[in-house]
Amino acid sequence: MPETTTPVSPKAFASEWPTWCPRCGDFGVLSALQKAAAQLGLSPDDVVVVSGIGCSGKINSYFRSYGLHTLHGRSVPVAQGVKLANPQLTVIAAGGDGDGYGIGAGHFMHAVRRNVDVTYLVMDNQVYGLTKGQTSPTSPQGFHSPTTPNGSADNPVHPLRVALANGCTWIGQGFSGDPNKLSALMVQAIQHRGFSLLNVFSPCVTYRATIEENGEKLDVYQWFKNHLYSLDESYNPHDRGTAFSLLLEHNDLVTGVIYEDTTTAPYDSFLPGYTTTPMAELAVPLEEDSFAKMAAQFQ
Amino acid sequence: MRSELVWKVGGEQGSGIEKPGEVFLTACNRLGYYTFGYRNFMSRIKGGHTNYQVRISHRPVSAVGDHTDVLVIDAKGAQESIDRNLAEMSDGGVILADTTMKATVPEGARVQLMTVPFHGIAGELGSDLYWNMVAMGATSAVTGLNLDAFRELVQKTFGRKGEQIVQTNYAALERGYNYIKEHYADVPHLQIAPISHPQVRPSLEGDYAAAFGALAGGCRFLAAYPITPASMIMEWMAREVPKVGGAVVQAEDEMSAVLMAIGANYAGARAMTSTSGPGFSLMQEALGLAGLTETPLVIVDVQRAGPATGLPTKPEQGDVNEMVYGSHGEIPRVVIAPGTIEECFYDMAEAFNLADRHQCPVIVAMDLTLGMGKMTVENFDLSRIRIDRGKIMRSEDIRALTDGFLRYLDQPDGISPRALPGTKGAAHLSSADEHDWEGRITEEQEIRTRIHDKRLRKVASVDFPGITWHGVQDPNLLLVGFGSTTGPMCEAAERLNAAGERVSVLQVRRLWPFPAEEVQPVLERCPHVVVCEHNATGQLAHLIRAECGGPELPGLRKYDGDPFRPAEIERVGKEVLNNARDNNTRIA
Fold it and tell me: Where are the domains of chain A?
């Protein structure tokens, strides 16, 4: 880090104008991320956003940095590879609920327990948007959609509980209707050394514009505003049991830092011989001495 | 005295049969013989029959032996060991068995059974583990192999454990040796001539050679999921990478493994994954990601017998189609096929140059016999390893650009310079959606067509040997194959040539882009061709025909889970040539 840093503007992280629907929750996520990156004094050249497929996966088309737009459900393994190959980069994986908790659920769970220093940003809108409104893994039971015309039979995934149960070292949840708080959460998630999961309620205003409650259709933003419980300073995020109780009590509708483990070392600290040197610089032939020692074991 | 001998140990799986096999191979290698070891095992931890065949010779050998001359069998599972291996025994071969075994050798079998109290002697020496060395001593007495080589190995292996262990092992060797000498007459026809000036060469499996080659070529990242017969690559890397810096990650599945390797390559590492058929199938989607984003990637597929779980511990070459054509859509790729253990080493190092140069997936096609077969090789030469990272722009190169950086800039050779993340002023998007020259997602028809062409054009300039030719230029019979069939094909050709025929071998070294310009004229020139491959449908033969045209090629196809024996290919070669003479077809 240089001794004096010129303040970075969030605009440094802006590229083309998004093609998302007006009022899409992902706008709030994008601006919060731009603000967080600026606040952290990052350079677009040192950030990699690895995204999945879906409306959310387009985020690195609009966020200026190095971007790798991958496959449906596959952003998290790619992001871990990027980070391990060059730990000097800030690596953010991003995608939606279908991407991370459906087709990519296996990768998600194992990334949680592996604890590579990657921030995983999930734009959870509880519906498949880009493919036009089908049921997603976080859609509530009974959700009517083209693929579940009689209401979905499946129970929704509880991603925060999955993460908590598998030893995720940083778990937060935000709401794109509250971009200031969301941005502050992103700053903390990125700063955390280890795998951080930031689930963001990021409404789809096209395929889940309203939520029915007591026979009344509420605007999706209003519904979240009515139900989200915002954690204050009195909450201690360092106890897993408390975090579990909190999620159960509020049916996961909580925003803030839900759990933080600052004592468990990240994955790379368990790799013998691993250094912070970017592996691009290690891609050289073996030295004579190492080569000879390795060859000797075959004699 | 003979110049070649085939020895085998057989017994119940899980009872430690691998150990005596390793000891025998290593000792013979140290005596200066060329060795070839092949483990025949089943997909279970305990139970069932397993055996380890070691062929030793005065000249290089790269195929499983046709016959076994000396068979050592453990007391456990003795009858099964005899039943399963008797047909493979050479006339006058010797079976060395424990005296307590209840098994019998059928009447009329042309083998000699010698019983030795392997376990009795071992028990007297204090541990059943010593039976290995008793068996080595007995082997030495039957074959004339110098007992000192085994003593040396004992010293090397157990020296650290103290003098008493070393001395007890010596005693086990000597008692096994003496028992045979006291109870049985010498077997003159099994005596193998010693190597007069032994030179100790490396002996190793193709998996280890590939892993070593990768490291030598600058690979410092491997993500993989355990799978037979590729696990040894991962295990070796996990042990050795920490010594030079880097990371070996056991991924949750093969999708994750290949994706991590793609991420690491994208970030500038030389990164790979290693797998076998089932895992390679799971990687198909990700192949397209590397192809479309133009990210270098190296995948080793140590093929095994499929489909599905198939015969997980047996050899096959059934993934040719998948390696060459697999993944939806169309991507540039390179598929190279080492056929010897030396080639596993050098080709792996070169695979990273190809991946970096062409910015696409490079698949290294191996197979179980090559990956797990253990062979004496010449010393590897580090000075032959070159590193070429292809077109990479650094921050200063970016600064010098007048029009800004275009990641997918159209180029005559299709290869656009890349900038690794972290490079100043070159932040860009790499998308698995179709994109424009800058990297932005697009559905414009004209761009789509041009950029798709650009990508596919990239591999036209691949510089890697297409074929290796073994033998005379104008043979009457040409044997064609790749990978581990190369060894037995060459041996069959040698034998046929020794009998007055003109037979050569065409080893395909590059499956994709297929070297049609080299193969087609050869096929036209050779009156008779047999494509030898380990699959039922003739995948290599069809690839050749698709790329070179011409009539369907006769094939020798083996898919019973057993590696080719030189004698099988020799027999078919002779048949083809005899039929040709009988039918007066074209023959020089």
Answer: 10-296
* Architecture of the B4-190 domain: 3-Layer(aba) Sandwich (3.40)
Q: Which residues of A touch B249 (CB under 8 A)?
A: 80, 84, 114
**What are the chain A neighbours of B216 within 8 Å (beta carbons)?**
285-286, 291
CB within 8 A of B368, min separation 6: which ones?
B228, B229, B276, B302, B303, B304, B305, B313, B314, B315, B316, B484, B563
1.20.950.20, 1.10.15.40, 3.40.50.920, 3.40.50.720: CATH of B467-582: 3.40.50.920
CATH superfamily of B204-384: Thiamin diphosphate (ThDP)-binding fold, Pyr/PP domains (3.40.50.970)
Residues of A in contact with B244 (CB under 8 A): 273, 282, 286-287, 290
Percent of chain B with pLDDT over 90: 92
Interface of B with A in 272-311 (CB under 8 A): 285-286, 288-289, 293
> In the CATH hierarchy, which top-level class contains the domain A10-296?
alpha beta
Nearest residue in chain B measured CA to CA from A87: B267
The pLDDT tens digits for B480-508 are 999 999 999 999 999 999 999 999 999 99
Asked if the peptide bond before residue B202 counts as cis, ω within 30 degrees of 0, the response is no
Residues 6+ apart with CB under 8 A from A226: A218
CB–CB contact B253 A45 (8 Å): no
C-alpha distance from A184 to closest chain B C-alpha (Å): 25
Chain B positions in Cβ-Cβ contact with residue A278 (cut-off 8 Å): 267-269, 422
B387 and A60 in contact by Cβ < 8 A?
no
Query: Nearest-CA residue of chain B relative to A70?
Result: B432
3-state secondary structure at position A253: coil
Q: Determine the distance from the C-alpha atom of residue B547 to the mean position of all C-alpha atoms in its chain, rounded to a whole number.
A: 26
Whether the CB-CB separation of B37 and B374 falls below 8 Å is answered with: yes
pLDDT at site A5: 58
As annotated, the residues of chain B forming the CATH 3.40.920.10 domain(s) are 4-190
- Residue B142 pLDDT more than 50? yes
The two tokens of residue B166 are 């070393």
Q: Does residue B14 surpass a pLDDT of 90? A: no
CA-to-CA distance for A281 and B394, rounded, in angstroms? 12
Range of weakest confidence among B79-88, B180-189, B345-354? B79-88
Is B256 in contact with A271 (Cβ distance < 8 A)? no
Q: Tell which B residues from 185 to 214 touch A, by Cβ distance under 8 Å.
A: 200-204, 208, 212
